[in-house]
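Provenance

Sequences were taken from public entries as deposited. Structures were produced by running a predictor on each sequence independently, with no templates supplied. The record for UDP-galactopyranose mutase from Deinococcus radiotolerans is shown for reference.
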Amino acid sequence: MLAERLARDAGRRVLIVDRRPHIGGNAYDCYDDAGILIHPYGPHIFHTNSREVFEYLSRFTEWRPYQHRVLASVDGQLVPMPINLDTVNRLYGLNLNAAELDAYFASVAEPVTQVRTSEDVVVSKVGRDLYRKFFQGYTRKQWDLDPSELDASVTARVPVRTTRDDRYFTDTYQVMPLHGYTRMFQRMLDHPNISVMLNTDYRTIQEFVPWQHMIYTGPIDAFFEYRHGKLPYRSLHFEHRTHATTQFQAVGTVNHPNEYAFTRVSEFKHLTGQRHEHTSVVYEYPRAEGDPYYPVPRPENAERYRAYEALTRTRPDVTFVGRLATYRYYNMDQVVAQALTTYRRLHPRPAETAAEPEPV
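Predicted structure for UDP-galactopyranose mutase:
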């Protein structure tokens, strides 16, 4: 987004450098050997309440409506996730209505004086049993930590509903790029001021390519050569499989909070709407080592990040954006919003008054 804005709106020359062999980062998609459009780095589902973000991306893609649904495998059943009225009724053999479910949650919730951890968030809302069935095992696999050891923000992201609404998200805009994310990125970067260099570590060329300002999206601790020690990240291993059937599971994603080493299985045809005689799915296995995906939200990690953040003020020639460079868990729409806000800060003048193109 920043490359597109700087090139198209500000008239700057931009060089994008990526160590991977493709554009798009983790949102990159492609066709597998079976001809099915997949997300190699796990499912990426677009949703936002921001009209600005939606309208900006709409310049580069058409959309298909898609409302993501998730089931969780619990006690031998597949039940809706987030927890809703149907989840509770089916698990416990009840016949509650919405008002009665509110009272039920109140009856099983454990009072917490001050909500500090992910465990506090859940048990104070829905009690200990639902916490164990849906959150404790999943969190331990995902983070290799108990929810009691993680910041409240981790489980606060997952709502609990008293209605039968089984959509995973409730945002105003819930869509997928009609022809995929990579096609959208290709259109975004289709500008004469933009050059792309793949399979390249920026550190190997920064002394040989003239530049005035760098926008850095990698891990912030790596940029500063781990001066304050490594920031912990969680990684993922993806196991892709193709099945000789038109559909593998009933919804886009099935969570497995308690069984198996993987956390979830996603089927891409639900997301993309593609029609094909076969189907492809991906199993996600959390890992301690590998490409960094998730900053680990704990107080000591936030403190270490602040030490790195202080170092960024010594580098006015570099702007740090994105999940890894700011050590925050962002959804895709939040990254787009951050990029647009950053652009306005970097280039507050209207495009028509911009100076002559300069290297970036």
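The longest strand covers residues 233-243.
DSSP finds eleven helices and 16 strands in the chain.
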